[in-house]
Amino acid sequence: MSGWLPLEANPEVLNAFLRNVGVSSWEFHDVFGLDDDLLGMVPQPVEAVLMVFPITEAYGENARIERERIERDGQALPPHFFIRQTIANACGTIGLLHSVASNPRAPIEPGSFVATFLAEQKDATPAERAAALERSNRIEQVHVAASQQGQTRPPEPEDDVNLHFICLTNVGGTLVEFDGCKAFPISHGPTSAETLLSDCARVVREFISRTPDNVNFNLVALSSAAAAE
Fold first, then answer.
1. Distance CA 8, CA 146 (A)
2. 218 to each of 38, 39, 56, 107, 164, how far by Cα in Å?
3. Is 200 noted as a catalytic residue in this protein?
4. pLDDT tens digits for 49-93?
5. Are 103 and 196 in contact (CB under 8 A)?
6. Which of 28, 103, 137, 142, by CA, is between 20 and 30 Å from 45?
7. Distance in angstroms (rounded) separating the CA atoms of residues 210 and 208
8. Neighbours of 133 (CB within 10 A)
9. Catalytic residue among 29, 98, 164, 200
10. Which of 105, 100, 65 is nearest to 117 (CA)?
């Protein structure tokens, strides 16, 4: 598996990334906590949430149990666009793509990288989409530029980085978790434009409960720029 430097979960970095691949108007904002007052500070409507968290044994064990349950019992998912992750440390880029790829309201500029990628990969499998990202010099250039930005020193290529991005978003009234390291997206039940952020907070609390002594969780919410003005 080839590797990139990881992205920082910094709204300025993520917003610049979106602009560079053709997503206009929407912007990321920090989520400073999970209580109602702090959630209320996030501009609405929220379209997606990116969560950054540590890869632990608990994460791996829950993913295994979750996969076995879904393969046995199935799950109901609306039509969606899912990308597997095959590039090390590309989870930030894949999370960003997942934040808009299944949303028909996303302000994607015609002819942009995202517009072209979604059109060309519409009927591809998640693994084929991953291979297309591996072949894309354009997305690698954008990712590399973004990985050099932010408030912390970028890690060295040989550093062991165990933080991982996933995306939570509303797909046709279902709260869907997109994690490129999993075999398929995960349904977390019904949601709406009005309740998406609080519904995401519920899922985040479940993640935190599995490693309560670990504080390395970070959240950013994608909101419309109009709501942020």
1. 8
2. 14, 13, 15, 25, 10
3. no
4. 999 999 999 999 999 999 999 999 999 999 999 999 999 999 999
5. no
6. 142
7. 5
8. 22
9. 164
10. 100
For the chain, the maximum distance between any two Cα atoms, rounded to a whole number of angstroms, is: 46
Return the closest-CA partner of residue 28 out of 183, 202, 171, 227: 227
Give CA–CA dist 79/12, Å, rounded: 30
Angle, nearest 10°, between helix axes 91-101 and 11-21? 60
- Give pTM, 2 decimals: 0.93
- CB contact set of 68 (below 8 Å; sequence gap of 6+): none
Which amino acid does the sequence have at 217?
Answer: F
pLDDT digit string (tens) for 10-29? 999 999 999 999 999 999 99
Query: Residue holding tokens 């990712």?
Result: 143
Active-site choice (91, 98, 143, 200): 91
Strand positions, DSSP E, the chain: 26-31, 46-54, 163-171, 174-178, 186-190, 218-224
